[in-house]
Amino acid sequence: MAGDGSLLNVLERIAGALERLAPPALPAPDFEAADCFVLEPPLRLLPVRAVNRVPIGLLRGIDRTRDILLDNTARFAAGLAANNALLWGARGMGKSSLVKAVHAEANERRSPGTLPLKLIEIHREDITHLPALMGAIREAPFRFVLFCDDLSFDTGDSSYKSLKAALEGGVEGRPGNVLFYATSNRRHLLPRDMIENERATAINPGEAVEEKVSLSDRFGLWLGFHNCGQEDYLAMIDAYLAAFGIDAKGEDVRREALEWSTTRGNRSGRVAWQFVQDLAGRLGRSLD
Q1: For residues 201 and 208, what is the distance between their CA atoms, to the nearest angstrom?
Q2: How far apart are CA 157 and CA 121, in angstroms?
């Protein structure tokens, strides 16, 4: 019928208009372009040509934690079983630095002929895109460590449920070629009042006690970072000075370093690095 043809033409014009309005399809990521990427929502992966990382040998005072995470990452890179990891604890003690250093070291140690391990950083505010990202890289011929720095959730924030589902839940589960590493100042990622609210609204309050660890339980490794002692702090400074060939030892430097940490109310790897940068500048040195 003539009316049917007219209707068909209208529908075709509508379909064409909708196609023109739709955003262009995202190009497939070129995983050969770099070893590290940053997620740009919804699913664009931006290559990072030069990663801001510290050599693993300069990370002091966290030897046991370093060895555990490196072993877990190296096993994963070799195609063996490995766990998601939550690095939690004191600020400035090298949590994010360790993840990036371990990624580089695992790639250095990989067997000849094996594909490099890729690191993808996903920002805290983009965590709701994690399930889609895992689905997009599930079939890629690489192994991936997805990394979220300073991960935590505030009261009323329901995006933590996306993380729960992505790590172990859902029909498909976590892809075999993906690990998830996160750093946080909170061991259980959720604030106390949010934990208490979930307990109070549960059907069985007795079982709800477990709810406070239900998210962090998705991580097979819990690696704690604690404020370092004075000798570890000074050892960090000595290691940085030696690495950059700065000849500045002795009681004067030790006294200045301790005074520097006192004025900041904290001893940590970050504070040690900041002191070394200040000292190098005063000595007319660059740390490039």
Answers
A1: 9
A2: 21
Report strand pairing: 178-184 vs 44-48: unpaired
Whether the CB-CB separation of 103 and 145 falls below 8 Å is answered with yes
Dihedral, 132, 135, 137, 138 alpha carbons, nearest 10: 160
Whole-prediction pTM value?
0.81
How many Å apart are CA 43 and CA 280, to the nearest integer? 41
- With CA atoms as reference, report the closest residue to 257 among 224, 232, 227: 232
Sequence-distant (≥ 6) Cβ neighbours of residue 89 within 8 angstroms? 95, 185, 187, 224, 225, 226
Place of tokens 């190098």: 280
Q: How many CA atoms lie within 13 A of 283 on its CB side?
A: 17
CATH 3.40.50.150 fits domain 36-225 = no
Q: Assign 148 a pLDDT band (cuts: 50, 70, 90).
A: very high
Higher-scoring residue by pLDDT: 272, 155: 272
Please enumerate in sequence order all residues whose Cβ is within 8 A of that of 141, keeping only pairs 6 or more positions apart, or say none: 115
User: Would you tell me how many other CB atoms lie within 10 Å of the CB of residue 10?
Assistant: 10
Pairwise CA distance, residues 177 & 138, whole Å? 7
Q: Residue 213 — pLDDT band, cuts 50, 70, 90?
A: low
Query: pLDDT tens-digit profile of 75-122?
Result: 999 999 999 999 999 889 999 999 999 999 999 998 888 888 999 999
Reduced to 3 states (helix: H, G, I; strand: E, B; else coil), residue 275 is helix
